[in-house]
Amino acid sequence: MTTTKAKVVYSPVFTDGAEFRIPTFKLLKQDGSLYKGAKAPDLDKEKALRIYRAMVTTRILDERMLAAQRQGRLSFYMQCTGEEAAVIGSTAALDDGDMIMAQYREQGSLVYRGFTIDEFMNQLFGNELDYGKGRQMPVHYGSAKLNYMTISSPLATQIPQATGYAYGQKMSGEGHCTITYFGEGAASEGDFHAALNMAAVHRVPVIFLCRNNGYAISTPAAEQFAADGVAPRAYGYKMDVIRVDGNDILAMHEATKAARSLAVEHNRPVLIEAMSYRLAAHSSSDDPSGYRSKDEEAVWREKDPILRMRLWLERKKWWTEDDEKKLQENMRREVLETMKRAQKRPPPALDTLVSDVYDEVPPGLAEQFDRLKAHIRRHPDAYPKSAEHAKGGA
Amino acid sequence: MTQMNMLQAINNALDTAMAADERVLCFGEDVGIFGGVFRATSNLQQKYGKARCFNTPLVEQGIIGFANGLAAQGSVPVAEIQFADYIFPAFDQIVNESAKFRYRSGNLFNVGGLTIRAPYGGGIAGGLYHSQSPEAYFAHTPGLKIVVPRNPHQAKGLLLAAIHDQNPTLFFEPKRLYRASVGDVPDEDYRLPLGEAEVLKEGTDVTVLGWGAQMEVIEHAVEMAEKEGISCEVIDLRTILPWDVETVANSVFKTGRLVVTHEAPLTGGFAGEIAATIQERCFLYLESPIARVTGMDTPFPLVLEKEHLPNHLKVYEAIRSSVEF
User: Do A198 and B56 touch (CB under 8 A)?
Assistant: First the structure.
């Protein structure tokens, strides 16, 4: 039986939790100055610039690749635009050995950890160098060496997996944690509840980072939940929670750093709700004009997290107009050149169709593959991507 | 060698695996101090501690999501779903996640260490929700292995193989047999091959194929048929996915007849897959239509359970019809 120390009442008293108001943690104003009373964060120049470069790179990559999708070079794309601080600020507060289990809009984490533009392009074009062997739609990145779990389209499935992964990290005693990212829409899935409850019960070093960006495709947050955001749910799990201005790079970094210490040093899972806005469409297949106003978007454009950080860097004399120009030009050029290169690379070999289903190809599947190859050999013109590969074998 | 029932053999397999490798973890609903509702995990928490054998909250999708994460991390999780009837909240985690982890990441990541144990099947007056045989749902999912043992010796050897196999494996335990009988079980670590059927008895007139608790039903039916001079070859499929086409086809080349039996409903049942494959392989050798003896296309009943189930009499009749066709 659950014991509680709650006082006893003798008439029906309902409570609605209204006494719990979760504040929003902010450090940085839009003009790049700190709020009065805000403590200057512990962030050295080198790291600050690593973060800033990752934010700008992510923005440019997103702009160019959406354009490439519009030109028909790419089947699909998803942008992180507007949420770069929430994603990169949190990732930067971790150890690079910590595991990241993201949803699909967190390419900024990969940029920060050093995923190269080549590696992005190889996945986006599904060529022979794509780690995922051309099996998943664009933006489903993964990197074992950067501790970034390959993206899976089903929403929220990564959240209980993060709890399990972090339990394994705790058992191994290596002092690492897992962060999992998801949107406020995905937080409605049962997997979210399962994950947070299990993490709290088993004291698992995991950070749940909810990007509350206002929309799940077209559904606004107000039609996703009646509560004051996602953060109050943490009380139900007896979990530490913090709400952060998701467009404030310094606050995101500071909050995640503190969360990591709770997770790794005290085995206390943490929920972070990053309040932000999805400035771009949900994906290249979506058109937000059908469900939100330009005026609303304009309000959030004014809160651009990248500009905010740039103004802070400039105040600190760590960044100049010239630095900005060089970075923008170099990145744009690199993205374009790399894209051309990646697009020309051949597709993955035909046998990647049947490898990795199991650790070894089972006999039944091997037979199916032999039949397919024989079929392709009879109709090579119908299969230009694989006719060459089908020549060998049975 | 020790005499054990199937539960003791499963408990012994888990004990063996946990003793050999500290990365092996057992968890699920009531799995901790209580040892599971069927006691398959008895004494494991006492022996290996709460960190390695523990209760989870009551949320199947969470149990398997958690297990997927653990396996991806390099641990060797053995997750229990209390009854196979309750595996469906975890369907997404199994079908969309466990099964596709290796493929979608190009083998950067995998959950090969994952084993999911679940008691399944009827015959214990369990009604709709403590009786189902859901293997066919999962057999439609490339990337999974599905294994069903028929007796204590098989249970230990196949479970140890499943735990050590480098692919996510569903291990369905015929709960009707848990305490039904005892058999000799080696004390040491041994592993039986996955993906290989076993010919239990050679014969010439008809091949009778099943798995799990149906093997006992088949044995009974075959005894009746053999008294009438029908020579039966009996095969335990053991692994449903990927299944051993070769062994079954070779048997049917010889006998020319096949009877397949399972408890799950007829339509969409795994016997349909077997029948389609075998008629393709053995078309010119077949002397009669491939027969399926299965549960009916109804939810699993309670009071009329016996009528519903493919018992030895129904299997016997199918053997005779096949031979007399």
Answer: yes
